[in-house]
Design brief:
The chain has twelve helices and no strands. The protein is an all-alpha fold.
Length: 283
């Protein structure tokens, strides 16, 4: 049992660091003495993540809207958990949903927990694909911190409103790659490559660099077996990315120092995605 949301989030962050560092040290015999501790932490982490990892986000959202709609149809205490039909989420009047939550949902804390689970699952998924989205995680943490400070009726309703606004912005963020004309993987690289103040022409050049870089990296990694396990192959990939970034990013506006910093961020992203994919295949 965790004592607070803050403690739970802190444990998850620290646990992920343990997994990453332990995996990087697997070839070191001295690391084996910590294997039992690693396994204990992993067992707790998996238990905490169990619902998040298996949740069908769309289904949970539909259930939340069903709860609210059931409350609209009846004033009987407790009927806000009754079964009901589901809806096309794109056609739901979100403003009405917020209003009806405030007026008629009886067990507000239960419904609020549902929407928090939805937002957490979506954030975990989105951050896993693109680490530049940390601002959304910070917004969520601020909302939860305010909620934990005072869980009265007004605070719960205000928290619901803020979470729904955040969920709306997550919808918009998840569709951004379409507006940019990129795949989600290309968008993650584009967010690492781009900088403020780019002209329209340079912005398009950076987009194309993102497409070319992703294709080149995928081809190169396809030639290597678990590159992150050997210093030589890690260095090869790091140099490969640096050369590609130097060649593809326009000069100006990017300086040599800019390109070196960008390449380091891209390598970190590629390394993390590779470890994440390997962990997903192992489970």
């Amino acid at each position: 049992m965790y004592t607070s949301d803050t403690a739970k989030r802190r444990f998850e962050v620290l646990a992920r660091q343990v997994f990453t560092r332990f995996k990087a040290l697997l070839t070191e015999p001295a690391a084996l003495q910590f294997a039992e501790r690693h396994d204990n932490i992993e067992a707790i982490y998996k238990k905490l993540m169990e619902r998040r990892d298996t949740a069908d986000v769309t289904a949970v959202l539909k259930d939340l809207h069903r709860i609210v709609n059931a409350a609209i149809r009846t004033d009987t205490p407790g009927d806000d958990q009754a079964a009901g039909r589901t809806y096309d989420l794109s056609k739901i009047n979100m403003e009405k949903l917020r209003d009806e939550f405030a007026k008629k949902v009886k067990r507000k804390a239960t419904a609020l927990k549902d929407i928090r689970d939805v937002v957490e699952a979506r954030l975990a998924q989105m951050l896993g694909k693109n680490a530049t989205r940390m601002d959304y995680q910070k917004r969520y943490e601020d909302i939860v911190a305010d909620y934990n400070n005072d869980k009265n009726r007004v605070t719960i309703e205000e928290t619901f409103r803020r979470l729904m606004e955040l969920a709306d912005s997550l919808d918009d963020e998840q569709n951004r790659h379409v507006r940019e004309g990129l795949s989600e993987e290309e968008l993650a690289l584009f967010d690492l490559l781009k900088r403020d103040g780019l002209s329209r022409k340079d912005r398009e050049r950076v987009k194309q660099a993102s497409r070319d870089l992703l294709a080149a990296i995928q081809q190169r990694l396809g030639q290597l077996d678990r590159f992150w396990e050997k210093e030589q192959t890690k260095s090869d990939v790091e140099v490969f990315i640096l050369d590609k970034v130097y060649a593809d990013l326009p000069t100006p506006p990017f300086t040599a120092a800019d390109k070196e910093a960008v390449a380091a961020h891209v390598y970190q992203h590629v390394w993390q995605q590779a470890l994440r994919g390997d962990a997903a295949r192992a489970t």
